[in-house]
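Researcher: Please predict.
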Amino acid sequence: MRMAFDPAPAEERAALYGRFEREIAEPFGMEHRFAESSEPKRIAIMASREDHCLSDLLWRWRSGELDAEIVAVVSNHPDHAGQVASLGLPYHHVPVEGDRAAAEDEVLRLLGEVDLLVLARYMQILSADFLQRLDAPAINIHHSFLPAFVGADPYARAHERGVKLIGATAHYVTEELDAGPIIDQDVTRVSHRDEIGDLVGIGRDVERLVLARAVKAHLDDRVLLDGARTIVF
């Protein structure tokens, strides 16, 4: 269950939370938490060379659609430094070559304490140690050709097979690759008239929409974890 309500005065909230714990949560064996909508979450974004998801999130943040504080943008490429700097946000280029553990240490140092990490088409696999030390949820986006077309050039192989649907999946990141609880998905139809470049463009549109919806749902505290799945209000 999710309940939204007007908050009690600040000086009364501690007492309210304590009463809820004693009189409702404990007698019914409830797991619960209170989230203050007036306190924007601290988020960080990681991206690689493609910028469609990153640019979309930055636009939504700038327009006020995403109520969050972006503390950093990190990439293993320097390509997006100008775009991010133009918005007054810190941009960090952390190459991932050779010593992956050292690169992850540097990313964690740069991020500090965050409430959410968004992988906006970050094309590097994060280790289990990184996720544990991050100590915050992470959301990833990828095409929905999995598991049929894994690896490189999935759009080319999908074109060869004559797919009729292109989709995207946003999910929480776990140690098991691309297997975390799904937050949002969408699909759009394609046809034999669409070439590989068309499929890529259509896929990018779906990816950025699905990722934005998943991030917004998380920021609004509308996502509840239920085992291996989510309930999104």
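Model: The first helix runs from residue 10 to 28.
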